[in-house]
Amino acid sequence: MRANDSRGRHTTTARVLLPLPQGGCLIDTPGMREVKLSGDEDVADAFEDIEALAVHCRFRDCGHGNEPGCAVRAALDEGVLDEARFLNYAKLRDEMEAAATSQAERKAEARVMGKALNKRLKDKYGRR
Predict the structure, then answer these.
(1) Could you tell me which residues are beta bridge partners of residue 27?
(2) CA quadruple 63, 101, 39, 31: dihedral positive or negative?
(3) Which of 55-64, 97-106, 118-127 is least confident?
(4) Where do the structural domains in the chain lie, given as residue ranges?
């Protein structure tokens, strides 16, 4: 642990983009502590194995909790699916759903504000 030297927590001063041999990139940005989802992401892209199991669930909208006939839960019980991987999937899925809800709320609020502004402009200036 660093002694208190009156400096900020982050000492990186420049952004760095490092290409990875696998084709991705690693980004180091000063001061950034987390990256949030926008709500447009698709969890299925990162968890194809879990999505493949989910196709066999009894219910199409299975949340993989306590629903009867859940193929994902069965795979967990049988040890075919790693529980830590499923927990990561569930966490990311929940974060993505929350981000999508937040994004939808912002869009709805922007529509309401836009309509209110248009009404005020129409009332003030009339139609042309």
Answers:
(1) 17
(2) negative
(3) 97-106
(4) 43-125
